[in-house]
Design brief:
2 domains, 201 residues, single chain, Nucleotidyltransferase, domain 5
Amino acid sequence: MDKLFIAGVDEAGRGPLAGPVMAAAVILNPEKEIKGLNDSKLLTEKKRDALYDLIYEHALAVSVGRADVEEIDRINILQASLLAMQRAVAGLKIRPHLALVDGNQSPKLACETKTIIRGDQLEPAISAASIIAKVPRAIKVKVRAQDENGKFFELEGEGLLSHCLQHEIDHLDGKLYIDYLSPLKRQMLIKKMNKFLRHKE
């Protein structure tokens, strides 16, 4: 009997304003169990990084796809997420018979698909995909901003709010420089941040 190859598929970056959408597809090896797989958001950075290495070491196939900010602005964030997933699955060296996709919407794929709500907590293959998609994004999305005193600082994009609170930065004056961030999303982020910072005064 032929083997049934099942791919887990998930994305990272759909929620945050900064950065591209990253997606991953993973076909796990049933003979090499990877313990501790879970939704990447529920893992510590140290645990996530360790699992990232184990997935690449033991999985039968791993692929990453992305949609850039220009594509997000052109076709919207949902369609960009689905596009990134398509690219991830297309990049697998083994063609899957079935793709298990986190959430309730699936990209158009050449194989059969099944969506699973909270699949990144329920299906190990999707958990693995969520980790692979998250780690490269955490590395690539960096923020370089300038506070009111002219001092520059760098941090991951999703940590901007906590940094502003920690250093008592009251406004950004539009001096925000974020890799992979389109002009539209830069304006949205500055507006959101300044609105929040005014409320904390």
